[in-house]
């Protein structure tokens, strides 16, 4: 039997050090890669989530809140993206709103990176790319691809069982780092509980009328391509769903928020505040388990031969064909449904109306591409570009 | 606050684990497989201590 002499140890250690460096360096770069968002003409103020919970200040969990106030007072809406950072459609939707929206009446609060720690996390074990790029008129705009949960670098260790506060429901240990399981949060809790508590404080202090949480889900999952709402939001959601189907030609069915499943935004925001919550799911073929390699191309165009085979066997919950389900469609759906929810609410409560202009809709994204609506940060003055 | 203290404690435990594994690695003379095993075991702890993953 060969013994483990010093020479052997040094050579094997050298191999492992090289592996550590070549594997670790891209992960470090990813964690420090800034996504640039250009403040559009409608942005009147930028705050941080820590303004609503000071203990978050200076931590990774703190994140920018873009405020767009109209000249005329009215109602208000909060739109959140990247609760799950492996569903970047929400972040892209909110970023497009930051860069383009102009508010004439009411106030719009936009948080593109709600779970900022999750956007700094990676999912290499499932072969996810570290970045994706969107083609714009001025070049490629690069974004981080994140993970569903906050990074264990920012919140660690996990409990054996996560006991939800305050409902005491037992959830998976991973979900303590999932900001769609920690609502309504608590002031003295773990970081992700503090993030959702800060958001609740925003909703309560600013007396926000609507909260829209943007997500994506697998095509094999029944809760996809839909709006999830509790009872009090159902009427507005129904009108929005019917309108986008008839006027814009895409389906977005309704799902009822289950009362017994705790921690989710569509349940807890409604139960712990007067705000009407809506959670939007767009179908993301990239997330499905039985696909080919998890490439950037699959993320962008949503075309996969294995999913096509499953679609022919009627195993998917969306109408899927050779055209896939592109990023443009997914972001376009989120924009149109969000705008429609706001419009339907404004019709129902004119004294709390919110009037937003200059935001593209589904057909604009499908025709022109998602990247058309991102502005080049290079020539923009420093104070108008936020790096997250 | 208590969560922060627990997190720091886990980092200190990781440092301790890395040190004793390196000590065992240096002492190991008989088995090459054990040397590789120690190095493989060290990787996630080093990545965590360097705050890479």
Which helices and strands occur, and which strands form pairs?
The complex is a heterodimer of chains A (388) and B (53).
Chain A: H1 6-31, E1 36-38, E2 45-48, E3 64-69, E4 72-80, H2 89-100, E5 102-111, H3 116-119, E6 131-136, E7 139-144, E8 162-163, E9 170-171, H4 191-205, E10 210-217, E11 226-229, H5 234-248, E12 253-256, H6 265-272, E13 276-283, H7 296-301, H8 305-312, H9 327-348, E14 355-357, H10 362-368, E15 385-387
Parallel strand pairs in A: 4-5, 4-10, 10-13, 11-12
Antiparallel strand pairs in A: 1-15, 2-3, 3-5, 5-14, 6-7, 8-9, 11-13
Chain B: H1 2-27, H2 32-49
Helix pairs in contact in B: 1-2
What would your notes on this structure say?
The complex is a heterodimer of chains A (388) and B (53). Helices cover 32% and strands 20% of the residues of chain A. With 388 residues, chain A is an alpha/beta fold. In chain A, strands 2, 3, 4, 5, 10, 11, 12, 13 and 14 form a nine-stranded mixed beta sheet that branches. In chain A, strand 6 and strand 7 form a beta hairpin. The radius of gyration of chain A is 21 Å and the shape is globular. Chain A starts with 5 loop residues before the first helix and ends with a strand. The mean pLDDT of chain A is 97. Chain B has 53 residues and is mostly helical. Chain B has two helices and no strands. In chain B, helix 1 packs antiparallel against helix 2. The longest helix of chain B is centred in the first third of the chain and has 26 residues. The chains are: A alpha/beta (388), B mainly alpha (53). Chains A and B meet through helix 1 of A and helix 1 and helix 2 of B.
């Amino acid at each position: 039997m060969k013994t483990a002499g010093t020479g052997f140890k040094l050579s094997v250690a050298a191999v492992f050090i090289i592996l550590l460096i070549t594997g670790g360096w891209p992960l470090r770069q990813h964690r420090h890669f800034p996504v640039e968002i250009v403040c559009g003409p409608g942005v009147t103020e930028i705050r941080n989530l820590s303004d609503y919970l000071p203990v978050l200040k200076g931590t990774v969990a703190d994140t920018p809140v873009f405020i767009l106030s109209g000249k005329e007072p009215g109602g208000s809406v909060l739109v959140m993206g990247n609760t799950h950072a492996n569903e970047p459609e929400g972040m892209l939707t909110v970023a497009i709103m930051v860069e383009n929206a102009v508010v004439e009446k009411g106030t719009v609060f936009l948080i593109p990176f709600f779970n900022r720690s999750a956007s700094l996390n990676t999912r290499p074990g499932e072969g996810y790319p570290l970045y994706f790029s969107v083609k714009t008129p001025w070049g490629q705009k690069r974004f981080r691809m994140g993970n569903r949960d906050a990074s264990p670098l920012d919140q660690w260790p996990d409990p054996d069982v996560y006991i939800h506060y305050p409902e005491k429901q037992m959830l998976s240990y991973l979900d303590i780092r999932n900001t769609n399981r920690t609502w309504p949060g608590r002031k003295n809790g773990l970081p992700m509980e503090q993030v959702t508590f800060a958001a609740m404080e925003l909703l309560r202090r600013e007396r926000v009328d609507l909260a829209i949480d943007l997500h994506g889900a697998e095509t094999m999952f029944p809760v996809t391509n839909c709006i999830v709402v509790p009872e009090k939001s159902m009427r507005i959601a129904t009108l929005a769903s019917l309108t986008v189907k008839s006027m814009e030609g895409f389906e977005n069915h309704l799902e009822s928020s289950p009362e017994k499943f705790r921690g989710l935004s569509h349940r807890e925001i409604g139960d712990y505040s007067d705000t009407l919550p809506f959670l939007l799911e767009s179908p993301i073929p990239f997330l499905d388990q039985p696909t080919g390699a998890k490439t950037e191309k699959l993320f962008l165009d949503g075309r996969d031969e294995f999913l096509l085979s499953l679609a022919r066997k009627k195993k998917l919950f969306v109408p899927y064909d050779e055209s896939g389900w592109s990023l443009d469609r997914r972001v376009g759906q989120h924009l149109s449904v969000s705008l429609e929810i706001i419009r339907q609410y404004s019709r129902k409560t004119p004294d709390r109306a919110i009037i937003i202009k200059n935001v593209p809709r589904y057909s604009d994204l499908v025709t022109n591409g998602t990247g058309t609506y991102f502005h080049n940060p290079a020539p923009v003055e420093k104070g108008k570009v936020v790096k997250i | 606050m208590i969560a922060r203290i627990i997190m720091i404690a886990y980092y200190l435990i990781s440092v301790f684990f890395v040190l004793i594994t390196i000590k065992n690695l240096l002492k190991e003379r008989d088995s090459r497989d054990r040397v590789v095993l120690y190095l493989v075991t060290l990787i996630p702890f080093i990545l965590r201590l360097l705050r890479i993953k």
